[in-house]
Amino acid sequence: MYSRVPGAPPGESRALVGSLWAGPDAVLTGAAALRLHGVELPRATPALRFLVPASQRSRRSAMGFETVRTRRPPTRRVRGGVGVAALERALVDAGRFRELTRAELMGVTVAVLQRLLTTDDRIAAEIEGGRPAGTLGVHDGVRAHRGGAWSCPEADLAVAVEGDSRLPVMLLNPELVAEDETIIGIPDGYFPEAGVVLQVHSRRYHDGLDASGRDRWVDTVERDNRYARHGLVVVPVTPTTLAHDLPGFLDALVEILAGRAGVEVTVRVRVNAA
Known about the structure:
The protein is an alpha+beta fold. The chain has ten helices and 13 strands. The chain has helices at 11-22, 30-36, 87-96, 102-114, 120-129, 136-146, 152-162, 216-229, 239-244, 246-259; strands at residues 27-29, 48-53, 59-60, 65-70, 76-79, 82-85, 171-172, 176-177, 183-185, 189-191, 196-200, 233-237, 268-269. Helix 2 packs antiparallel against helix 3 and helix 6 (136-146) packs across helix 7. The longest helix has 14 residues, at 216-229. The chain is elongated.
């Protein structure tokens, strides 16, 4: 394949050109492979890394292509005419090669698990089978998903609360019911002893219409009033605040919980919620 335009080829064709450069035994991995798997990434990652058998040599090109030798050849998939590593290998390699930050890796991990593109067990097996260096973000994402996080901002919130020794245990996505067994809702986060609900308000994750034709954003905001009617305090937070003023938000949350000390909470968590 040849291009009349100097420099690196644009878009998906770059991965195809890179695979021709890397050779028939090469397998694309890392962030570039995740993108071909249909995974949305938080930012562009210019490097394209291809895994090759240990019998071959590692090399680099001026266009940002690189081959890396491996003694553990990945399971090969074909996406857009390019041989790519299985999603789990690509995800963990994005951490091993430092292509994504720990926080970004956590968010992507939650996203692929929530979309059922892979499973906790398959990711764990991939981590155990290779180098653990750089995989903390993947561990964070798996732990947050197992704890009930449904989105990247919720995962960020869960990790932040868990890491703050001033805060009690927060439940993720619990089903709350009133004394008459009426379902109140499923908040993003909940402190049961204080009756404090945390809601991550993001248009990105609550956009569009639901199955009944209701605006998801309007329904999300109106749901806050439902919690308040049952004596719960709703603390809203946006992904922007979590990203840029997390310490300030946690300080405010500590004060709110302290002000709710000793309050009687009649709302309960339904243990057998799905």
